Amino acid sequence: NAPGKPYAFVHLQIESAAEEPRVLCIVQDTTNAKTVNERLTLNLPASTTVNKLYEDVAHKAGYVNGTFCLAWANTGDMAPLDQASEMSLVLSGFEAGKRNFMQLTDKEGEQPQIASVNSSGLDDSSQDRFIGPLPRDGTVGCSSDYSSPSYSYSSILNKSDTGYVGLVNQAMTCYLNSLLQTLFMTPEFRNALYNWEFEESEEDPVTSIPYQLQRLFVLLQTSKKRAIETTDVTRSFGWDSSEAWQQHDVQELCRVMFDALEQKWKQTEQADLINQLYQGKLKDYVRCLECGYESWRIDTYLDIPLVIRPFGASQAFGSVEEALQAFIQPETLDGPNQYFCERCKKKCDARKGLRFLHFPYLLTLQLKRFDFDYTTMHRIKLNDRMTFPEELDMSPFIDVEDEKSPQTESCTDSGAENEGSCHSDQMSNDFSTDDAVDEGICLDNTSTAERALKPKSSLTFELFSVMVHSGSAAGGHYYACIKSFSDSQWYSFNDQHVSKITQDDIRKTYGGSSGSRGYYSSAFARCVKPPKFLDVEDFPEHIKRLMQREKESEEQEKRQREIERNTCKIKLFCMHPIKMMMVENKLEVHKDKTLREATEMAYKLMDLDGVVPLDCCRLVKYDEFHEYLERSYEGEEDMPMGLLLGGVKSSYMFDLLLEIRRPDQVFQPYKPGEVMVKVHVVDLKSESIAAPVSVRAYLNQTITEFKQLIAQATGLCAETMRVILERCYNDLRLLYVPNKTLKAEGFFRSNKVFVESSDSADHQAVFTDSVLWKLLDRHGNTIRLFVSLPEQSPGSLANRTSCPKASADSEDSFDGAKGSRKSVEAILEESTEKLKNLSLQQQQQQHQQQSSSTSDSQKSSEHSDFELIESPAQEPDAASQPSQTENCTRATSDTENQFPSEDHSSDTLCNADSGPLPLANGLDSHSITSSRRSKAHEGKKETWDTAEEDSGTDSEYDENGKSKADAQYLYFKTEPYSHEDGSGEGQKCLLVHLDKRITLAAFKQNLEPFVGVPSTQFKVFRVYANNQEFESVRLNETLSSFSDDNKITIRLGRALKKGEYRVKVYQLLVNDPEPCKFLLDTVFAKGMTVRQSKEELLPQLKDQCKLDLSTDRFRLRKKTWKNPGTVFLDYHVYEEDINISSNWEVFLEVLEEPERMKSMSQLAVLTRRWCPAQMKLEAFREVVLESSSVEELKEKLSELSGIPLENLEFAKGRGTFPCDISLLEIHQDLDWNPKVSTLNVWPLYICDDGAVIFYRDCTEELMELSEEERNELMKKESSRLLKTGHRVSYSPRKEKALKIYLDGGPTKDPGQD
Questions:
Q1: Are the beta carbons of 571 and 656 closer than 8 angstroms?
Q2: pLDDT of residue 263
Q3: Is the pLDDT of residue 66 over 60?
Q4: SS in 3 state form for 9-67?
Q5: Cα angle vertex 1284, ends 1280, 1290, to 5°?
Q6: 262: CB partners within 8 A, 6+ apart
Q7: Staple 889 to which of 872, 956, 1129, 1162, CB 3.0 to 4.6 Å?
Q8: How far apart are CA 1228 and CA 1225, in angstroms?
Q9: Where in this protein does the record put region Disordered (predicted)?
Q10: What is the mean pLDDT of residues 1236-1243?
Q11: Buried b (16+ CB within 10 A) or exposed e, 521-533
């Protein structure tokens, strides 16, 4: 095929069908529970088009074509295949001869239509029915997770058959979905909700619970989607996303939601709706068995909790009727439980019980399936079988006399204050998803659907809804079985799945030993004819307006989804000529847009308008990982992007590059199959390496042919050419076999080679001994480091002159290759004329002969194509180049010439007049300094050496460091670098290019002239992420762990010698709000005594911390986090008596009197008196004990405080020093007066100095506080503990209570404890 006609073969007929490759398609139908584990297999010719594939799948699956989508199965977010596409399967991403897995999915949230005309006429008995939990979305094919021997999971009927919409499970909101569907299917509730009108001027619609329920119900009734979201409803509850991961009890949710609705509906027609529908009354009575006197009160209820298995019994009730009978069965109060009779004026035997006075319109029964096992001390689920009837006659359970006129009783109706009192055992269950099996909850609501057809008792209720919980007490799944009032058909509402079920399926929810599924709560309704659901045409006007808004929103969402489905999203790269770097973006283009239109979109996306003309840009296929240009699209400017990119996909195996050329250039065609080679020309005479020239070659070319290709591109002689391939870092391979192919030599998509062509004798040398190899070797090991110098360097830097870095838009600038507006080839052509020299490390005799103008190499950043930068004085016209914004070159400094004497001559940077060059910031070149000294900078002291990058136990000082510095790798070159801080002043910095095989000792020696002090008097810190600094101390180790652009900070201070350790000294201030204060960094040595270290600290403390102390008036002690530990005695020796390590931390404690700690057998504890009568804690005071005896501790505390020994109680503090605790909790929360005789046993475990002991006088009464005083103290203590951060909670994670917030969200009161 011609390059411009890549798809010409699509329409060609293959002469022999037998020769045509075939595509095996395996399709999984994810829209149907029955077929989710089945596969449709199609073996099609490779030339089959995508639209023909849709036809074949529709025929095989029995669906109407156009009502479903096909998508790739290997990625969950893959966009569906375009049904109208005429592209062949091969061009659409299918692989011939391999299995191609597809998924058949819903189209726009609607299930596929079944093609069979008889499908709607099938008898119910012949159709598969579904009841029970389904696999969640995203776990297709995992229905076995919910398998149960007592259930057969049958197919879900299509939404078009059921007519009902499901609800999406946010995470663990199945309990909410079940309740919402039950309320939606209750005509009285739904119609009343529709009749309520939302006033936007009075309330925010986002936080209005009735309004969001109204919206949800409208969508459930009118939406075309298979399932809708409930996030707006939960947002109106004041819930955040974390609530979606908390599973609660459905009956608890019902109660809480009804309370919230009643609050919202105050002063409206719906104010009493909940009570009218769900509230009943019962009498709680006690009757004296001697005189017959009865005392009672009336309570209201919204549901009736029924016990499954009485306490202590092994046999459960067999039916709801039995449980109801037990509910009203009175108990006899006798013996010690006798009742005091008001009439008899004495304790008498009595009967206590409940009587129903009035049943609600909708009766809700809740089975108490969740119980507590006192043997195992775990919550359990009771799966005992309990039957319930289709019709429930409640007349046997009502008090007939009271039912006649319950309102005329001469008693106090306590319903308002005791509403729901019979639900005291209601559980607030916080379920987890650990258990994959769902536990059933059944709600039986008697529907009033067709109860007037035959004579029935007025107290006969018809089963209407069953809530089922499947699983265990630890977690499970809720779903609802609901009877429709409109057609008397039962449906299973299981999150997003709705299906028809039968009475047989309902009976399966009774529970029993064979499975863990059982109904949990049920609802019945009175047997009167129920009202009809409001039809759309009968909606109130405000609901019609709401429905229209939701319809428009759904249409807009549908259009947006359609656009998304047809939009190609692909990574776009561009070498931006202004930003001087490779810029990445995301190109989103409709599949029908042409390449020309897409190029214009990319042009605008990359902000190139006014920078380069549009006709100088083109899009090419690009591999960013290998930096490889795969192909260009000549002659295909009018081709749709969908065809060019191989269809709409969520991710592509390639990227696009917006390539830019100069107006006088022509774009080079890139053909598939070519490899890209970056050719760097090496000049041995000038010891320079040129920037790369891009050459495209073929893998089957020989080395001879490849040399000819390079010769054409570079103008070098192919006969004398040496070609070196850099296969990976530091792996140089000389290509010397003429007939060997590039593929055999290890070439890949993108390659890097160095070429040299000269008549020098270096050709005769063995490659690894040649000058060329040494130049390339050093080039490959040279890195660039940013070095921040000390802010106040002693000594004069007058002998050094320097120059700011060339400006970013200079053609010779460091990153020039990245940012040029011209094409790579154009830049390279210009750069070839201006090659900058790369210095090669010469032998020792050459060092002495060379002048200070020897050129040095400079390596580009890892993203740049340039591998060298200019060196001074090599090109006489360098200063006069018009592209230079400043007529100077970078500062260089040859260490070979600098360090032999103090008056070393580094390369002086000169302008055209050879005068000293002023710096850009106006400072002289010899005074590169900075006054930056911010608090933030000083604050970093605490993080300098919190860890050591070398995990050795010692700072290995190499006494031969000087001689090591003169070893093989001495390449070292510097230039000034200005780092701007927030104040606008530049930090004094150096840009250092060096061979990373140099040792730390040599690196420090080379930095001496710039720091101004000997290498033993400054420290090197490596800067990591988040500006963490760790000291590098191993002088023998090389810088091989460093890489380009790493940052180093130099700080003044004596470097460590062998056996020395860096130590951070903190002051311990036991009675200060912040007891740990950083003082200074110092050095302790192995074998040093504590007294010697204290003597060395004295002058440092005086100079740096203004602390004028004597050795006997302060002590050093162990520091563990913020806890004070062992007191170090003067005669202790580091590393013998005291373990010491790198970046060690120690406490310094100022003493008010001479040291009392003289021996390791002594114990120093910090004590604090608690005064309950004053509600205050006294200051810390140290007590030194001679032993671990509790008796001695009490004696010392009694002597200290004056509390009599027999009245003294003590407790150990909890948590981190200073063991803060709320004054409201300390009196009862601590373990006062532990029954031990020594301190070093459980529960005290006081074995080391620094433990905190609280003590008190047990005869002292706790201060009585008024409610106002208590609240005030609570706020103060909460604020204090919050600031110190010392509050420690020992309690395990508590179950989260279910709450609905009427003000839009939870309020966090910092004053609450």
A1: yes
A2: 83
A3: yes
A4: HHHCCCCCHHHCCEEEEEEEECCCCCCCCCEEEEEEECCCEHHHHHHHHHHHHCECCCC
A5: 95
A6: 271, 274
A7: 872
A8: 6
A9: 398-429, 793-823, 837-961
A10: 89
A11: bbbbbbbbebeeb
Instruction: Check if 469 is active-site.
Output: no
State the Cα torsion 379-381-386-388 to the nearest 10°: 90
Of 651, 362, 283, the C-alpha closest to 522 is 362
| 174 included as an active-site residue | yes
| Res. 710: pLDDT tops 50 | yes
In this predicted model, which residue has the larger pLDDT, 159 or 163?
163
Return the number of other C-beta atoms located less than 10 Å from residue 471's C-beta: 24
Active-site residue (options: 358, 423, 469, 477): 477
- CA 446 to CA 1002: how far, in whole Å? 91
Paired tokens of 397: 């359970």
Spatial separation of the C-alpha atoms in residues 505 and 483, rounded to whole Å: 12
Residue-level length of the chain: 1313
Preceding omega of 663 cis (within 30 degrees of 0): no
Bridge partners of 995?
782
Considering only CA atoms, which of 79, 261, 94 is closest in space to residue 183? 261
| Max avg pLDDT among 233-242, 418-427, 1168-1177 | 1168-1177
What is the rounded CA–CA span in Å between residue 946 and residue 942?
8
Say how far residue 817 (Cα) sits from the centre of its chain: 37
Region of 879 please: left (phi>0), alpha (psi -120 to 50) or beta: alpha
Query: What pLDDT shows up at residue 1196?
Result: 94
Letter string b/e over residues 1262-1298, b meaning 16 or more CB atoms within 10 A of that residue's CB: eeeeeeeeeeebbeebbeebeeeebbeeeeeeeeeeb
pLDDT in tens, 978-988: 765 444 455 68
Question: Helix, strand, or coil here: 357?
Answer: strand
CA distance 48 to 51: 8
Backbone dihedral angles phi then psi of residue 19, each to the nearest 5 degrees: -85, -15
User: In sequence order, what are the residues at sequence separation of 6 or more whose Cβ sits closer than 8 angstroms to the Cβ of residue 1093?
Assistant: 1082, 1084, 1116, 1134
Indicate whether 937 pLDDT > 50. Answer: no
The mean pLDDT value for 420-445 works out to 34
Instruction: Locate 1049 and state its tokens.
Output: 């900070």
- Global pTM value: 0.48
Q: What angle do CA 746, 751, 755 make, to 5 degrees?
A: 95
Q: Which residue has the higher pLDDT, 362 or 626?
A: 362
Among the ranges given (393-397, 402-406, 520-524), the one the predictor scored with the smallest mean pLDDT: 402-406
What's the sign of the alpha-carbon dihedral 131, 133, 135, 137?
A: positive
- Stretch (H or E) spanning 372: strand 370-373
As a dihedral over the C-alpha atoms of residue 1228, residue 1233, residue 1239, residue 1243, rounded to 10 degrees, the angle is -50
Q: What is the rounded CA–CA span in Å between residue 1197 and residue 1184?
A: 10
Q: How far apart are CA 1219 and CA 1266, in angstroms?
A: 27
What's the chain's Rg over C-alpha atoms? 43
Residue of higher predicted confidence among 988 and 424: 988
Tell me the mean pLDDT in the region 236-244.
81
Q: How far apart are CA 605 and CA 603, in angstroms?
A: 6
CB neighbours (10 Å) of residue 140? 18
Q: From 1081, 1080, 1082, 1084, select the one nearest 1061 (Cα to Cα).
A: 1084
Closest CA to 420 of 303, 521, 301, 305: 301
Average pLDDT, the chain: 75
184-193, 371-380, 641-650, 1169-1178: which has the minimum mean pLDDT? 371-380
Q: Which of 174, 442, 888, 910 is catalytic?
A: 174
- Look at residues 499, 501, 500, 519 and name the one whose alpha carbon lies nearest to residue 509: 519
Is residue 1109 pLDDT above 50, yes or no? yes
Give bridge partners of residue 1019 from the DSSP assignment: 1051
- Cβ atoms 359, 394 nearer than 8 A: yes
Q: Do 1196 and 1165 meet the contact criterion of CB atoms below 8 Å apart?
A: no
350 pLDDT band, cuts 50/70/90, is very high
